[in-house]
Task: structure prediction
Amino acid sequence: MHQQNGREAMDRQERQAERVRQVGRAEQTGQTGQDGQDGQDGQVERKPARERAERRTAREQVEQRAMRRAVELAAERLGLTGANPTVGCVVLDERLRVVGEGSHRHDGEPHAEVVALAAAGTRARGGTAVVTLEPCAHTGRTGPCTEALRAAGVARVVYAVADPTPRAGGGAAVLAAAGIATEGGLLAAEATRANRYWLTNATRLRPWVTWKFGATLDGRIAAADGSSRWITSAAARADAHLLRARHGAVLVGAGTVRTDDPHLGVRHGVAGPAPVRVVVAADPSRLPATARVFDGSARTLLAVPERFARAAAPPGAELLPIGPPDDPSAGPHDGPDDGQVDPRALLSALLGLGIRSVLVEGGPRTAARLLAADCVDEAVGHLAPALLGAGPALLGDLGIGTIGGALRWEFRAAEPVGPDLRVSVVPVPDLRVPDLRVPDLPGEGVPGEGVPGERVPVGAGGRTA
Result:
């Protein structure tokens, strides 16, 4: 079935490309076919304006399909490219046929444009490169994509979102100066979604944060007696492990470690790298040294207040002090386990360690603190068709006393997973990206992403109109 659908899509694309070629030939010869006949002595009226509009529309339709494919290629690599963005590229030849495609695999490896150009070979000359992110104009561990496109003889570049980083941005202006027609903004929202980890690192200077939970229909994460295994199905648990494999770290509070003793690895037949395990605790001495997160199978960070910077970490864990030193006159902390670690400071520290995305699986207090700090970008919940009526709620107190203060989110997706329902919601508005350029972060492939908008050509002086 997939092969048949693929053939049909290719046939449609070839028919569309042929229509573009026909219109182009008609523009040269002055013939437009039956639509252009005036019915007098078989003469054909020339309609160059209409022909040009038809040709432009047909070309844009082909480019849009190519961009959708490029977005698919980028999304397949989400969370797997290290410090670099997730980028997809499709190359069209002069006759608007797909002759190459590719995606960026990992930092240090060829960028998507280079992969697609290699597949296209000489057929790229005079053609169009359709790419989800503005081609880079700097040399890191690989050369600039702008130079690769120029050397390949590409005549046109269409990109979805602009790169706002001073180090890698400005590629569209470089291409325009080289005489290559350049246009931005095509399917910007879709490309932004496919590249959300990377752009969040740059625009918010922290990792992308996903809050994952499993609950009953009435929002309970355990029964009144504390039992919680298993609220959701095996299918939902396998799906949760897929999420883990696509995030750089998984985060819980100390209460979850003591109550549930989670391992936080990738299991249930899911292949992928083990995420860094992050445990947030107000006092590391209150954690059991035999907890499974300290088994040494993956890197484990114990985020603690600064006053515990010299404390002994449990075997198999590294201390990660967060925040300024406490007042030496203050007594011992007796509050919640995660109460003394500022969420924003913690996320900033994790980004400094190269962690680009975080999956929050902690308890109600941990989730509430991140939400209250506006540090959650998406929530993914597995809802079981079960009711308890009592037991711990999935979210702690947010300090909201009236319905007017509710945090309003919107659904992105809802689909069955086994007997359960998987829902994905995002804050309103989704993926807020400030309209400004941001400073570089350490490392090659500095995160960044442009503001979604309409397709715009690069004008004189290389500025985007």
In short: The mean pLDDT is 81. The radius of gyration is 26 Å.
